[in-house]
């Protein structure tokens, strides 16, 4: 079974939203990032706060470009992320089911969390990756890459 390990929330004020979730639910802040430009395309990259409930990565982002066709002012659940054992095999299986690419592996900037975005039947965007998201629980039987850092 594949596991949801990431929820991305679009917010116009990620810091205020993160503060609310810390106070409301006790979620831990993992890191923050400011608005930056993608070096290859020159497009604005999202800024935000990465949080965790101990199992799932919850990332609150202010987007600089519209990735899902709802406008940069959209607020709410932006996409979910699913960790899989074999992203290549999963990509082929999803494509055979008719799932549409939003981004593929050729569109992921080097050094980023590697994920491929698809659009589901209800216009929900989801990522697939074989790397646990920061602050998320790895798949059973798969070691956490954070444990192997020097």
One letter per element, helices H and strands E, the order comes to EHEEEEEEHEEE
- Major β-sheet annotation: 8 strands, mixed
**SS class:** alpha+beta
Residue share in β-strands: 25-35%
Describe the overall structure.
This protein has 150 residues and is α+β, with helices and mostly antiparallel strands. The protein has one domain (3-134): 2,3-Dihydroxybiphenyl 1,2-Dioxygenase, domain 1 (Roll). The protein is built from two helices and ten strands; from the N terminus they run βαββββββαβββ. The chain has helices spanning 14-25, 87-96; strands at residues 3-10, 28-33, 36-37, 44-45, 47-52, 57-62, 76-83, 100-103, 116-119, 125-129. The protein is globular. The N and C termini lie far apart (31 Å). The model has no long low-confidence stretch (mean pLDDT 81).
Summarize this structure briefly.
The protein has a single domain, classed as 2,3-Dihydroxybiphenyl 1,2-Dioxygenase, domain 1 (Roll), CATH 3.10.180.
Write the layout of secondary structure elements.
Elements: E1 3-10, H1 14-25, E2 28-33, E3 36-37, E4 44-45, E5 47-52, E6 57-62, E7 76-83, H2 87-96, E8 100-103, E9 116-119, E10 125-129
Parallel strand pairs: 1-6, 7-10
Antiparallel strand pairs: 1-7, 2-5, 3-4, 5-6, 8-9, 9-10
Short descriptors:
150 residues, two-stranded antiparallel sheet, 2,3-Dihydroxybiphenyl 1,2-Dioxygenase, domain 1, 34% strand, alpha+beta, 8-stranded mixed beta sheet, 15% helix
């Amino acid at each position: 079974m594949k596991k949801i390990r990431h929820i991305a929330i679009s917010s116009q004020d990620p810091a205020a939203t993160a503060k609310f979730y810390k106070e409301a639910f006790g979620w831990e802040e993992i890191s923050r990032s400011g608005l930056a430009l993608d070096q290859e395309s020159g497009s604005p990259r999202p800024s935000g706060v990465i949080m965790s409930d101990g199992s799932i990565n919850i990332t609150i982002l202010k987007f600089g470009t519209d990735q899902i066709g709802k406008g940069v002012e959209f607020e709410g659940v932006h996409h979910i992320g699913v960790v899989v054992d074999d992203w290549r095999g999963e990509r082929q299986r999803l494509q055979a089911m008719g799932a549409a690419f939003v981004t593929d592996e050729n569109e992921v900037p080097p050094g980023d969390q590697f994920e491929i975005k698809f659009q589901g039947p209800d216009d929900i965007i989801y990522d697939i990756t074989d790397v646990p998201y920061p602050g998320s629980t790895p798949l059973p039987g798969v070691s956490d890459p954070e444990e192997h850092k020097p």
